[in-house]
Write a structure and sequence with these properties.
heterotrimer; A alpha+beta (115); B mainly alpha (319); C alpha+beta (391); B: 319 residues; mainly alpha; 67% helix; C: 391 residues; alpha+beta; Cytochrome-c3 Hydrogenase, chain B; 3-stranded antiparallel beta sheet; 15 helices; 10 strands; globular
């Protein structure tokens, strides 16, 4: 019987459930979400592909003309690519709603603009 | 003559009859789920229908459309008959409760005994359902249900005799009429009301007494092998028993459909029934589950002497 | 004799969160014998660790378990740092401690909800899991993810604690401490909880020591053994705290032990945040690890976690072995279950805080000839097919 007051008090409180997707919490700063690539800074060293635990990054080409392909379906969102990159060219943003119904849409292809 | 037959047929089928009881069963399941959810600081059913009112109906329809599997080793006849049997019992008992005015559709001297006998028959059909399933978990659940019945039947029957003795009649309708003319029995027999609430929690197999159906121990207890249409009917039977329990508590202790003059008696009955069901739901959210030996010890050590005490008080006090 | 029936619990069962099989022999409502069969969650992690470099291994070790992830990575990075002979800066040690204690709070709230669900107390289950959201939000603020935080790296930690994060953590743990005091009061006063937990799952002190129980299971049987106190790692030699013991030897004592541990963790976090040393949070280490054989232990929320590392100078480990705490508690669990009721089985199993995914490792030991060996995956598969055909 000792929880009875607590129970009755909860009748007057608003339920604590968040009615997603009608109500959403703002994402925190530093959330590990979708990748974004800065082609100006990338030198094509390939450390991100070597250090990825899920083998989700593929480097196409070498050096300053290299391009990136990231398989989001394999990605752990661990952030090791961000850590290993010596030029901070690859970063994780705050986008977390990444579900797709077609597996082909989960492959991110980052290309350089041809000058 | 034909008009009277048509009216009584409409009464039996629609109001207060089968359709009304089924709608009441679904409504009170929604009330129970929503209330317990609010006690636990969450929403409960929310999206089906306005405020989630259609959720129990949606669950019923979904179960009706699922595959109905009869286990290879089960006793096919008994297994198929149990849900129908268990559905018809609460309907019979509910016709003996006065809802619209002070006389029920079935009312004769001794229908209180009929209602108590039906609650016993419900437990026997639980056992038959468990036994014919030939599944280890069902067997354990069925045995536990019978043990539980041995416990709470005695105090419940003793205490229900209290209003009968005070009103000097064994018919529920006449007890309600006595309370309408006099006063409500909860004022003189509060101990009886509490014991009846506890015993009904045990009969409905709700926490803290949901031992035969304990989900985390024996998968689903005696309900394990039922699926599809049979499970839908069994769940509807459970909801009807819930309404039956609330109705018995209302009729015997809270005066049934009697009240003051500015609302029809039917509305008063609904209000009192809702209060009783909210009390049962609150007890459901408050406690943990007992073990079967602790239940038996508690019932025989505490509930039965208190029930006898209540009856002695009813006899001694002159009104 | 003829009334003994065999009941299988698992691998799929509503009361287990992970698959394991326990074959019970029951007589009426009493449990007479129990035979566990483990191995349903075996994933071949130890073999996979040998194929990957040390940096990739960090994330694989983190995913041995969903909830003890910080404990596993702390153990791993400690082992590798000791082989590399580097010393982690003090600020990193404090941050590791703070995250480890937050994880301990998370784990104990989760566990309390599970035990409440097993005994049928749905309301306490909903309340504790609601409060668990607070600590998950704090961890998300710190590290970017609600579980599997990846805060550790070889040579330090990844992210720093800014003053805003620090004040959020202080506010959050204050609420958590108060709620845990309330739940402790409920669990020691509510009659229905007491009838299900007092004198249930008894493990006497000498049984606990001889069967090698670890963690709060051991400490609830009045044995004061805690790796944080006996063999301090990270920042535990500089932070004052008490190892909590109770002498009831039953489930009620285990509940009380874990509630007190949460309150201790709140104090540790407050002290650590108040005395956070300044400085850098990481050192740069080389990718090649010299040859060494290291054993490292940490106090995971479930008990003592041991990792063994054998390195050989390359950038991949030669052998890595993980001994999770639930494996140590398994024989003690079997002893606790015998002689009890069927209705107590889920509560007792939940009472040791089982984490079967941490537990499943495979090795062969021949006790008579004192040999041990392992099997490759293909041989295991063929043996499995032969075994099932025989059933």
């Amino acid at each position: 019987m000792s929880m009875e007051e607590e129970l009755i008090r909860h009748l007057l409180k608003k339920p604590v459930t968040l009615r997603y997707p009608y109500e959403k919490l703002p994402p925190v700063k530093g959330l590990r979400g979708k990748h974004v690539w800065d082609s100006e800074r990338c030198i094509g060293c390939g450390l991100c592909a070597t250090d990825c635990p899920a083998f989700a990054i593929e480097l196409i080409g070498k050096g300053l003309t290299a391009e990136l392909k990231i398989y989001l379906g394999r990605c752990l969102f661990c952030g090791q690519c961000e850590e290993s990159c010596p030029r901070e060219a690859i970063r994780l943003t705050q986008l977390y709603e990444l579900a797709e119904s077609d597996r082909k849409n989960l492959i991110l292809e980052f290309k350089r603009e041809s000058t | 003559m034909v008009q009277e037959t048509i009216i009584s047929l409409l009464q039996i089928v629609i109001f207060p009859g089968f359709l009304f009881f089924i709608i009441a069963a679904f409504f009170y399941e929604w009330v129970d789920r929503k209330f317990v959810a609010r006690l636990q600081n969450r929403y409960g059913p929310l999206h089906t229908g306005p405020l989630g009112l259609l959720q129990p109906f949606a669950d019923f329809l979904k179960l009706l459309s699922k595959e109905d599997i009869i286990p290879y080793a089960a006793d096919k006849l008994l297994f198929s008959v149990v849900p129908i049997f268990m559905l018809s019992l609460p309907f019979t008992a509910l016709f003996c409760i006065p809802i619209v005015n002070s006389t029920a559709p079935i009312s004769f001297e001794g229908d209180l005994i009929l209602v108590i006998f039906i609650t016993t028959l419900i437990v026997i059909s639980v056992f038959i359902g468990a036994w014919s399933s030939t599944n280890r978990f069902s067997t354990i659940g069925g045995m536990r249900a019978c043990l539980q019945m041995l416990g709470y039947e005695i105090p419940m029957t003793i205490v229900i005799a209290g209003p009968a003795i005070a009103a000097k009649t064994l018919s529920i309708s006449k007890i309600v009429q006595w309370q309408t003319a006099g006063f409500w029995f909860i004022l003189t027999q509060p101990l009886g009301f509490i014991i009846v609430a506890i015993c009904f929690l045990a009969e409905l197999q709700k926490i803290p007494f949901d031992i035969p159906k304990a989900e985390t121990e024996v998968v689903a207890g005696w309900l394990t092998e039922f699926s599809g249409k049979k499970l839908a009917l069994l769940r509807l039977a459970g909801d009807l028993e819930f309404v039956l329990a609330g109705s018995i508590m209302t009729s015997l202790y809270l005066g049934g459909p009697s009240g003051f003059w500015f609302m029809p008696p039917f509305v008063w009955f609904i209000i009192k029934l809702t209060v009783c069901i909210l009390i049962l739901s609150n007890l459901r959210g408050l406690f943990a589950r007992f073990r079967i030996d602790q239940l038996m010890r508690g019932v025989w050590k505490y509930l039965t002497p208190l029930a006898l005490l209540q009856i002695i008080l009813v006899e001694l006090i002159p009104w | 004799m003829s009334s003994i029936i065999k009941i299988p619990f698992g691998p799929q069962h509503p009361s287990f969160k992970e698959p394991e099989n326990f074959m019970f022999k029951v007589d009426g409502e009493y449990v007479v014998d129990v035979t566990p069969r483990i191995g349903y969650a075996h994933r071949g992690i130890e073999k996979a660790l040998e194929d990957r470099t040390y940096i990739l291994d960090l994330y694989l070790v983190e995913r041995i378990c969903g909830i003890c992830s910080q404990a596993h990575t702390t153990c791993y990075t400690q082992a590798v740092e000791e082989a590399l002979k580097v010393d982690v800066p003090p600020r990193a040690k404090y941050i590791r401690t703070i995250v480890a204690e937050l994880e301990r709070i998370h784990n104990h709230y989760y566990w309390l909800g599970i035990v409440a669900h097993e005994i049928g107390f749905e309301t306490l289950f909903m309340y504790t899991w609601r409060d668990r959201e607070i600590v998950m939000d704090l961890l998300e603020l710190l590290s970017g993810n609600r579980v599997q935080y990846a805060m550790n790296m070889i040579g330090g930690v990844r992210r720093d604690i800014t003053p805003e994060i620090s004040s959020e953590i202080m506010k959050g743990v204050k609420v958590l401490g108060e709620r845990m005091e309330y739940y402790k009061k409920i669990c020691s006063n509510e009659r229905t909880v007491l009838t299900r937990s007092v004198n249930v799952g008894i493990l006497k002190t000498k049984d606990a020591i001889s069967l090698c129980a670890v963690g709060p299971t051991l400490r609830a049987s009045n044995v004061k053994r805690d790796v944080r106190a006996d063999d301090p790692y990270a920042a535990y030699d500089e932070i004052p705290f008490h190892a909590v013991t109770y002498d009831g030897c039953d489930i009620a004592s285990r509940i009380a032990t874990r509630c007190d541990e949460v309150i201790e963790s709140v104090e540790i976090i407050r002290y650590a945040l108040g005395h956070l040393p300044t400085g850098s949070i990481e050192v740069i280490v080389s990718r090649l690890v010299p040859s060494a054989e290291i054993v490292s232990r940490v106090e995971a929320p479930r008990g003592e976690n041991m990792h063994y590392l054998k390195s050989n100078g390359t950038d991949k480990p030669e052998r890595y072995k993980v001994r999770a705490p639930t494996l140590a508690n398994l024989t003690a669990l079997c002893k606790m279950l015998i002689g009890g009721y069927i209705a107590d089985i889920p509560v007792v199993i939940a009472g040791i805080d089982p984490c079967f995914c941490c537990m499943d490792r495979l090795t062969f030991v021949d006790v008579n000839n004192d040999k041990s060996w392992g099997w490759k995956g293909e041989k295991l598969r063929r043996y499995g097919i032969k075994w099932y055909k025989k059933q």
